[in-house]
Amino acid sequence: MSAVSGAAAGGAPLLAVAGLAKVYPTGKKALGGVDVVIDRPQLVAVIGSSGAGKSTFIRCINRLVEPTAGSVRLNGEEIVALDRKGLRAARRRIGMIFQEYNLVERLSVMQNVLSGRLGYTGLLASLRYRFPPEDIQAAFALLDRVGLDGYHNQRADALSGGQRQRVGIARALMQRPELLLLDEPTASLDPKTSRQIMRLVRELVAERQTPAIINIHDVALARAHADRIIGMKDGLIVFDAEASALTDAALTRIYGEEDWSTPQDEDDEAPAAPTVATAQVDALS
Ligand SMILES: Nc1ncnc2c1ncn2[C@@H]1O[C@H](COP(=O)(O)OP(=O)(O)OP(=O)(O)O)[C@@H](O)[C@H]1O
């Protein structure tokens, strides 16, 4: 099924999450019953303080974290009820992009991208990285699209963080997913690279008509690039609207009291004092 067929045909929404809850074995209630419907291809940013439950929410959608209760329907199919085999098949329909890229370091860029097709080819062919010509063509086209034309033979461990994340995005798109989940994809990147990656994700959501949910700490980036923002607090959704509706009052609801209108304190922006270790390195250089 294509990413748009469900909603476009007037059928089930692309994604319908209802009453999603998670209590970790420690007793920590990380999600307290979350409802989200995505009925068109859009970039949805999930923001909130550390520990608000953003990562748990994203990971419960593809059951990297097992929900304690609730329902996740992808184009009408209940993900929570699936057995192991069904879940494996469903996960092929959901691309995941991680903060730490999760590439196979010793493999080439091309092999990493093609690994997005693992599970579609026979086991032996997969193990030998033998893929049909159309997959290889698609991988080259994706590498070109994410700005890595000519990098196919490079080893993953020779890439910068931004380049690795581009490989992660290309690998996820090789699955031709119906939904993209991005768990803090810019957290390890510098501000400029973060913006470039967010811009790329936004463009890809539109081009491929695939909705994406992104867990992100940077409110300015979320505002600039997301169509819709979900604000979480203590495992609950306290804000869910288009990005332009994210007012200071909404930020206070999500993060607590703060004067959002004044620039950051100078102290906040001052470079950190050198640690003993960096001071020693400085002294040696
Ligand atoms: N495996 C786990 N076992 C027990 N508690 C957990 C586990 N993972 C997360 N938690 C707790 O669940 C709550 C929500 O965590 P989660 O990682 O989803 O928050 P988050 O909003 O993504 O935070 P951050 O922005 O810091 O990544 C936190 O209190 C966290 O300590």
UniProtKB/TrEMBL annotation:
SUPFAM superfamilies: P-loop containing nucleoside triphosphate hydrolases. Residues 259-285 are annotated as: Disordered. It holds the Pfam family ABC_tran. Residues 259-270 have a biased composition (Acidic residues). GO terms for molecular function: ATP binding. InterPro entries: AAA+_ATPase, ABC_transporter-like_ATP-bd, ABC_transporter-like_CS, ABC_transpr_PhnC, MetN_ABC_transporter-like, P-loop_NTPase. SMART domains: AAA. Belongs to the ABC transporter superfamily. This is Phosphonate transport system ATP-binding protein.
